[in-house]
Amino acid sequence: MTGGAPVSGTRPISLLLYSDDVDTRTKVRTAIGKRLAADLPPVEWTEVATPAAVVSAADAGGFDVLILDGEAVPAGGMGMCRQLKEEIFECPPVLVLTGRPQDAWLATWSRADAAVPHPLDPRALAEAVSVLARRRRG
């Protein structure tokens, strides 16, 4: 796996969203909206629902942030995060959606750069993704 180089300039913030649950994907997209913050470009989404699609999309590169659902089936976002961090050179920052606040330690094990628990707090989610996108953009 090769991953992609950090993205810069005024290109849209490219987010990869992985969840097998369409309702979770809708909640994440709604919480973030069309723009993370006034100083950042608009958001561009790539949604995937299978582990193979996550690996393929992440390997193709070009993402600013990966958002992985820790509760996804058959492969949870935490396991996927650990795999991506080990296999993709310069892996983009990863935010893991955890099942509950007490699962934050699992996100640390997975090498996630941030974690937000369910039920999703739109402000916390948007802020966490903004921080990771700014870090990626430099």
Task: Please describe the biggest sheet, giving its number of strands, its sense, and whether it closes into a barrel.
Answer: 5 strands, parallel
Strands across the major sheet, in which order?
2-1-3-4-5
The arrangement of helices and strands along the chain is EHEHEHEHEH
Overall 3D shape: globular
Low-confidence stretches: 1-8
Share of helix among residues? 25-40%
Give the DSSP E fraction (strand runs of 2 or more residues): 15-25%
In round numbers, the mean pLDDT is 92
Cα Rg: 13 Å
Number of DSSP helices? Answer: 5
Distance between the termini: 23 Å
Decide which structural class fits the backbone.
Answer: alpha/beta
Number of strands: 5
Protein architecture, described:
This protein is α/β, with parallel strands linked by helices and 138 residues long. 39% of the residues lie in helices and 19% in strands. It contains 5 helices and 5 strands. It has a 5-stranded parallel beta sheet with strand order 2-1-3-4-5, sandwiched between helices. β4, α4 and β5 (114-117) form a beta-alpha-beta unit. α1 packs across α5. The chain is globular. Mean pLDDT is 92; it is low at 1-8.
Question: In terms of topology, how is this protein built?
Answer:
Blueprint: E1 13-18, H1 22-32, E2 43-48, H2 51-60, E3 65-69, H3 77-87, E4 94-98, H4 104-109, E5 114-117, H5 122-137
Parallel strand pairs: 1-2, 1-3, 3-4, 4-5
